[in-house]
Amino acid sequence: MSDTTGSTNDTSDTVRDSRRKRILFRCWHRGMKEMDLLLGGFANAEIDRLSEEELLELEHLLTAHDQDLYAWMTGRKPLPPEWDGPLYRRIIAYHDAAGPAGFVN
Question: Which residue, of 36, 77, 89, 95, has the greatest Cβ tally within 10 A?
Answer without folding.
Answer: 95
